[in-house]
Here is the input.
Amino acid sequence: MKVIVQQESFSPGQVIQEFQDALPRGKHGGVVSFVGTMRDFNDGEDVVSMTLEHYPGMTEKHIEQVCAEAAERWDIVDCLVVHRYGEMFPNDAIVLVAVWSAHRANAFDACRFIINYLKARAPFWKCETTTTGEKRWVEHNSKDPKAEVSDLEGVK
Amino acid sequence: MNISIRYFASLRDRMGRADDALELDGDSATVSEVWAKVTDGQSIPDSTLISVNMEYTDADAVLKDGDELAFFPPVTGG
Here is the structure.
């Protein structure tokens, strides 16, 4: 299990491959990944850049907790989370969640669980800059009706 | 007792500062009592999230000497 919170941009595919290369050979049958990227629009306005703030220490601690929780709930081989903070631009990868397991169902479920937790609980805050130069805090993440958070029950 | 307080994101902007260091009489206080002290008696705004020593808690939590308290708006990562 590895959690990285970093300012630098990253290439999700490269990070996944490097992590996978270090895993025990032949133990996983697949990897499921989610990559969150930055849109150039939000709440009806064009967005040119975004700055993500976090709570150093608490952010890492809570992502590590949920990865451990996922490893208890599902039979997975390993998981990797990378989340950026600082300034970023449209198309940039914001977050990567990747889960390796012997069979796909566990990797899908664990990956979904981790990203849903991240969005609901990990202390990050987005501040957008619009084309007019206005800076505004994002009050809440976009509603995704299929992103259920009910499976977060029992997570501290 | 001494409590350190941190504010994040839009809540930090509203407070006009990123942190406070508070010295209180006695050896315990609740989160809501501390908030009232740093805001001249206001109540905690709805939807504000609270952590003590980097674990989520609520306004009734009792603080002890050396605790790090934080207030922040709903999170928007991912």
